[in-house]
Amino acid sequence: MGESTATPQRKVALATLTGATLEWYDFFLYGTASALIFNRQFFPSLSPAAGTLAAFSTFAVGFIARPLGGLVFGHFGDRIGRKMTLVVSLMLMGIGSTLIGALPGFAVIGVWAPILLVALRVVQGIGLGGENAGANLMALEHAPEAKRNRYAGFPQMGTPAGLVLANTVFLVTSSVMPAAAFTSWGWRIPFLLSAALVIVGLVIRLRVTETPSFAKAVERKQIVRFPLKEALTVGTGRLVLTVLLSIANSAVAYLFLVFSLSYGTAQLGLNRQFLLITVTVASVLWFATIPLWTSMADRRGRRGMFLWGSVALLVWAAAFFPLLNSKSTAVVVIALVGMGLIIPITHCVQGAIVADTFPAHVRYSGSSLLLQLAALLGGGLAPVISTAILNSSGGTGGVTLYISGICLMSLLAAVAVFRLAPVAPKAVVSPATA
Predict the structure, then answer these.
(1) What are phi and psi of 359, to 5 degrees?
(2) Residue 429 lies in a domain
(3) 427, exposed or middle or buried, with CB in 10 Å at 0-12, 13-18, 19+?
(4) 272-300 and 302-324 are packed helices; what angle lies between their axes, rounded to 10 degrees?
(5) Average pLDDT of 157-186?
(6) CA 307, CA 65: separation in Å to the nearest integer?
(7) Nearest CA among 90, 247, 215 for reference residue 155
(8) Mean pLDDT over residues 131-136, rounded?
(9) HEC string for 42-76
(10) Exposure check for the chain: N or C terminus, fewer CB within 10 A?
């Protein structure tokens, strides 16, 4: 591969990583604020437990909106191209986050505060619903054949990078301000910063070209009027199993990233700064190890790696809350850092597995729908369900059973999917099991 080819591909990798990082920054910023701030700002009349549940419910609304965003952006991504839909999705997310930063609280506008908060969370969800699969396709479809998993991993790196950025900004802002001032108005600063970050992301994203796969589909006149309808012809069984395969990683990740902050501070009495710093360090490891795992997937195949990663995820999910409940600083660090090392094994190739379920001309529509449904059923519901279980039982035993059951279900679904789609020869574009 010559320099003239490599340079545009590297630009695409940078653009997808940057755009995904900014999208996830906005999305995770809301999650952190839901765990630590929103119950007091938007639901002050509720008890602390009920307020946290209400805040997490607004967090889940973003996941409910993600399939809608996936449908809309997936449709136009297969009809008019990947590039412009990704530009619009980034703008949508930035606008939603900036307006959240300017939104008056319950004390100022009463019940309209939580109503508008939910509406802006819907805007965020729609934006991320378009970004999630689209950035993955932009990288995957520009990639050299021998490095498809590695290139598809760049937008996946945006997930932990966005979290690191969100937590760092949140942590710095809360550290340099008095606690009362931060709770009152300082929490808005990270949301308002989104406007400037999105401008940087748009400048980078507008410089990339359309993907070769979409260009070929246009050249061959394969563009269809209703791409989702054709994408669904893959078969109901295959589609359902692929969604189930994707649920565990999302559910475990959001328990780790969001629920553990609320549980650790409110129930275990752990220091908020300590938890934020430890989760951020774990996310740095998540980010740093993705190139290792994606390179291994290119060399040895992603099927076996995903299955072993699913087993590791199941084991650590079962151990996570018992480790947290020790309240030992060292053991809590092990629990959180362990998540940062195990989650990326399956996360880094999950998007490529889902994308390769569909032919290129309907890939955006199909993969968007599946990824967003999995995110809703996994990450969107996990903090809410876990909080409800915790409030009703008073312990984390039920939460551990819940998350372990999801991990087992996803592992069995992966085994079934890989049997439905046998490995193809290297010369052919890798299927979901390659």
Answers:
(1) -65, 155
(2) no
(3) exposed
(4) 160
(5) 87
(6) 30
(7) 90
(8) 82
(9) HCCCCCHHHHHHHHHHHHHHHHHHHHHHHHHHHHH
(10) N
Question: Per-residue pLDDT for 114 more than 80?
Answer: yes
> 359 near 144, Cβ under 8 Å?
no
68 part of a folded domain: yes
- pLDDT tens digits, 317-363: 999 999 999 999 999 999 999 999 999 999 999 989 998 889 888 99
Using DSSP, state whether 187 is helix, strand or coil.
coil
d(CA 73, CA 127): 9
pLDDT-derived band at 7, boundaries 50, 70, 90: low
Residue 297, domain CATH: 1.20.1250.20
CA distances from 139 to 136, 208, 220, 424 (A): 5, 11, 21, 21
Task: Name the residue range of residue 178's domain.
Answer: 3-420
| pTM of the full structure | 0.82
How many independent structural domains does the chain possess? 1
- 231 neighbors 365 (Cβ within 8 angstroms): yes
Quickly state the pLDDT bin for 163 (edges 50, 70, 90). confident
User: Could you tell me if residue 353 is inside a domain?
Assistant: yes
Please state, in angstroms and as integers, the Cα–Cα distance from residue 3 to each residue in 52, 84, 152, 153, 215, following that order.
Answer: 52, 26, 20, 21, 22
Q: What is the rounded average pLDDT of the residues 27-56?
A: 75
Please report, in angstroms and rounded to a whole number, the separation of the first and last CA atoms in the chain: 22
Asked if residue 425 is part of any domain, the answer here is no
Residue 80 and residue 210 in contact, taking contact as beta carbons nearer than 8 Å: no
Backbone phi, psi, residue 57, to 5°: -65, -40
Any idea what the Cα angle at residue 344 is, between residues 278 and 321, rounded to 5°?
50
